[in-house]
């Protein structure tokens, strides 16, 4: 059975929601480490994304009004520094901590790939002995396409219609790799 599980799907299909539901018991037991994203909203409008370290700090990854950020992707200004100095250390720390049994990476996508240090950290996690659960965008991209095709990866494709079915599949994988 593959040591790494990737959840993929179109934007807005519920990848992060599925991930957080599946890993909730591991977060409570404090045996998961890594990073995940949260939407920032103003009323009903999404204005950006926060980057949250599991059990730690939070920073702004992207925002539609943060003109000082280093890159622009669509309507968002993206902080590659947030990825380099928050997400990457969180991933590497999860690999080093003995208590951490599951490495979480949300999300492997274009915003995160703007940091030169992000993909090497993802690769290090995927090659490690620790199980990795990550979300990855569905968009064709040479770097993420290679990750999805690895022999040691189980790929779960989620849609709004299959979210509950996929949640059961992810929980089953977790149960085999990180028994509670």
Q: Per CATH, what is the topology?
A: Rossmann fold
CATH C-level label: Alpha Beta
What is the makeup of the main sheet? 9 strands, mixed
Helix content: 25-40%
Written description of the protein model:
It contains five helices and nine strands, in the order E-H-E-E-E-E-E-H-E-H-E-H-E-H. By secondary structure, it is of the alpha/beta class. It has a single domain, classed as Rossmann fold (3-Layer(aba) Sandwich). The radius of gyration is 15 Å and the shape is globular.
Write the layout of secondary structure elements.
Elements: E1 4-9, H1 15-28, E2 32-42, E3 45-53, E4 58-63, E5 71-73, E6 76-78, H2 80-96, E7 102-108, H3 118-127, E8 132-137, H4 142-148, E9 153-157, H5 163-177
Parallel strand pairs: 1-8, 1-9, 2-7, 7-8
Antiparallel strand pairs: 2-3, 3-4, 4-6, 5-6
Helix pairs in contact: 1-5, 2-3
């Amino acid at each position: 059975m593959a040591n790494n599980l990737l959840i993929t799907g179109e934007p807005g299909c519920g990848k992060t929601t599925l991930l957080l539901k599946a890993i909730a018991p591991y977060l409570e037991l404090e045996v998961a480490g890594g990073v995940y994203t949260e939407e920032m909203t103003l009323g009903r409008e999404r204005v950006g994304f926060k980057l949250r370290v599991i059990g730690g700090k939070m920073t702004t990854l992207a925002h539609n009004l943060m003109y000082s950020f280093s890159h622009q992707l669509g309507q968002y200004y993206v902080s590659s520094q947030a990825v380099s100095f928050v997400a990457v250390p969180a991933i590497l720390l999860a690999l080093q901590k003995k208590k951490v049994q599951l490495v979480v990476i949300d999300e492997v996508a274009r915003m995160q790939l703007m940091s030169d240090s992000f993909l090497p950290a993802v690769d290090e996690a995927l090659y490690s002995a620790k199980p990795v659960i990550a979300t990855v965008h569905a968009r064709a991209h040479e770097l993420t396409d290679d990750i999805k095709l690895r022999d040691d990866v189980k790929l779960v494709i989620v849609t709004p219609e299959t979210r509950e079915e996929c949640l059961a599949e992810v929980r089953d994988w977790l149960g085999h790799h990180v028994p509670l």
